[in-house]
Structure to design on (127 residues):
């Protein structure tokens, strides 16, 4: 059995690149200003949906969770699919919706995070 400290050390050895970190920043920025990225939703007016997107701490958690995913996949490098695998779970509860949309939070957060992943340009895998 692996200790907590050993587990954390192994995650820290997962390498990231400037390109992946820029992509993570774009994903984060899309939670702040989805309309800037041309994101559209069927169920809500995007310009009125978000009061506050994910915080900088949320972005840090996204990168940590993505590193865990890469580690679980026995890789030493971080790839876009690692961010995708954890994006909704890490980001959805960090969004602050306008009160008129809050009653549909579960549906709208899933639709928004899906659209962000579909819309924000993914960097090439070979970085």
């Amino acid at each position: 059995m692996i200790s907590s400290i050993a587990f954390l050390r192994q995650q820290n050895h997962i390498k990231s690149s400037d390109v992946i970190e820029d992509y993570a920043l774009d994903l984060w920025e899309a939670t702040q200003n989805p309309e800037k990225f041309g994101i559209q939703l069927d169920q809500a007016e995007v310009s009125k949906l978000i009061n506050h997107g994910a915080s900088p701490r949320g972005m840090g958690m996204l990168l940590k969770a993505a590193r865990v995913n890469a580690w679980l996949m026995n890789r030493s490098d971080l790839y876009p699919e690692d961010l995708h695998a954890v994006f909704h779970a890490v980001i959805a509860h960090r969004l602050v919706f306008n009160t008129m949309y809050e009653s549909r939070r579960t549906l709208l957060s899933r639709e928004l995070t899906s659209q962000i992943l579909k819309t924000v340009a993914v960097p090439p895998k070979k970085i």
